[in-house]
Amino acid sequence: MTSSVEALTSLLATARGNRPQSMANREAEDVLNITLAVLVELAVANDRIDRLERMVADLRGEPVEELRDLRYEGEIAQQRQEATDALLTRALRIMIDPRAQS
């Protein structure tokens, strides 16, 4: 099974032509792209977190703070690390895109 990190990396490796650029400075363009990717990821994550915390806290009849203090080990911790790795790959994809401007 292909992970989302591998899929995105593979997709970027097959890209053709120059990557579009709207700013005169490539480094500024890269920072802007990374910032926008992180902002999108954060907005989606915050929405999901808020909905899930409210639902779970309501179902369990406990304060949301108790949910936020949970810690995981083993396979669950590994899955969470893989999700973090995928997030970083999506956010920093501009740095691994082979179509860098010269």
What does this 3D model show about the protein?
About 70% of the residues lie in helices and about 0% in strands. The chain has about 100 residues and is an all-alpha fold. It has a domain of about 70 residues.
Task: Draw up the topology in text.
Layout: H1 4-13, H2 26-60, H3 64-68, H4 74-91, H5 93-96
Helix pairs in contact: 1-4
Helical element count?
A: 5
Helix percentage: over 70%
Strand fraction: under 5%
Low-confidence stretches: none
Quaternary structure: single chain
How is the main sheet built?
Answer: none
Which shape, going by the Cα principal axes? elongated
Q: pLDDT average, as an integer?
A: 85
Radius of gyration: 18 Å
Please give a handful of descriptors for the protein shown.
71% helix, mainly alpha, 102 residues, 5 helices
Structure summarized in a few sentences:
The protein has 102 residues and is an all-alpha fold. It is built from five helices and no strands.
